Amino acid sequence: MAAVLPATTREILLSELPGGLPGPEHFTFTRKPVPVPGPGQVVVRNRYFLVFPGLRTLIGGQADGVPLPRIHVGDALFGPAVGEVVAAGPGGPLRPGDTVTHLLGWREHALVAAADCAPLGDVLPDPVAHLSSGSAAYGALTRLAEVRPGDTVFVTGAAGAVGTLAGPVARLLGAGRVIGSTRSADKAERLRAELGYDAVVVPGPRPIDEQLAAAAPDGIDVLLDNVGGDQLAAAVRAGRRGARFALVGALSGQLSPRRDGCSAPAEIDTFRLVNQGISLHGYSGMDHPEVAEEWTKRFGDWLRSGEIVFPQVRIPGMDDAPRALQELFEGRHFGTVVVELPPT
């Protein structure tokens, strides 16, 4: 029996450009008719959508090369989502009842081209795991940093969506010592106790260089950088000969209220890069299209075997989504943050 669709649905719009970091006051909820799918289109009832720091860049301005459109005042927010097809237009491969991922989160129902949806299948044991950022961590560690047995790996921003998976993945790839960074002492303890980090640097009164020297007295072989700024500079100073640095994010600029989310300047010692033969590359999933499928299979195997866990925070209901985004910017959460919508 076909699902009975509601007459209207809600979505979250940008109502005002923020002067700094966006807060709940910069968003509004709107109600609109549930769309009717045309040929090759489907209507998806969203069950989960990702709260992610990249929205800061899309709202604040657009960095060169970002493959997603800028969000203007009056536009609906968007981002990775998991949902159920509830209506399908003619000529497409999807049918009501199919569970899919797509990029039109931040709304209850989404009108999506069937070609822009990916059926989930059963590779991952939890649908929410399809919203993990682990593909970026895995791709950076295997394609750019090429973790080797015994390596000392430093993961900045280790308590975030990428970092909570990057450390355990580095260990599974053979790393001998895994060090993280986070600005919270409580999160530092969780990284050690729950995710097996050997040591955690907590930027603050004690210099980063001093903490990193204590955690890795012989230096680091691999950096997976989510932060940039002072932490990237410190990692360069700690890099061993031939160290491989993979840059995945730049939260130091993206989450700064004094910047627009599109730049993250850092002063690094280029002499040391040259003298130590340190390689430094930015990771983009678009450059490695084969990684997503490879990661999903390995992630599913690791989850089922218990070799890895998927730290996550589920925010119940769309009403709290803007607050969840603000809390993400403030560093209140541990792991991946998703909004969970009721099933009906």
TrEMBL record:
GO molecular function, one term: oxidoreductase activity
Pfam families (alphabetical): ADH_N_2, ADH_zinc_N
Enoyl reductase (ER) domain span: 23-339
Classification via SMART domains: PKS_ER (SM00829)
InterPro entries according to UniProt: ADH-like_C, ADH_N_2, ER, GroES-like_sf, NAD(P)-bd_dom_sf, Zn-ADH-like_protein
Superkingdom per UniProt: Bacteria
Gene3D superfamilies: Medium-chain alcohol dehydrogenases, catalytic domain, NAD(P)-binding Rossmann-like Domain
Name the UniProt record assigns to this protein: NADP-dependent oxidoreductase
Species in which this protein is naturally found: Streptomyces asoensis
